[in-house]
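Hi R.,

Here are the chain sequences for the assembly we discussed:
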Amino acid sequence: MPHLDEISKQVLEKIPDFHKDNSAYKSYDKKFFEEIEILKESVETLKPWNEIFDVAVVSTKHNSKLPIHVDYGPIEKTKYSLNIPVYNCEKTYTVFYKIKEGAQFEKKSAGINYYNGYKESDVEEIDRIYLNKAAFFNTQVPHSAINPTDEPRIILTIRSDKPWKELN
Ligand SMILES: [Fe+2]
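And here is the predicted structure of the full complex:
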């Protein structure tokens, strides 16, 4: 994605300080982010901005991890997320897991959003990814964000109603 450093900088300046001290998935009005023209332009190299239905900030507090989860919601809306690093993504990472046979999930809520959560003993790590550039994530593979640093980790997740072209 072009102009990534500049995008990260402008997003960080615009979002509330809340994200620096809280682990959260928080959606903002698309219009809120539209003002960051460079972000809108860069996303539009991949798809029209009007096909985006959710832009959210995901923050992970210092020295903590997000629950192991699968994003909840209609699969066509949540499956592929375009994730953009905003702050402290070089030494923090996302882990993907395989679910062990017979494992159960639990529907949990994080503010207004739901997710299906798994116990650590019910999963096995299959991959870990450092978000050092923008990347598509399949949010239907169980995952967690791990932040072993003393700073918050912040990313942007961009979701679309329609499949991203190259992932069809
Ligand atoms: Fe997630």
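The chain has a mean pLDDT of 91. The CA atoms of residues 25 and 113 lie 8 Å apart.

Let me know if anything looks off.

Best,
T.
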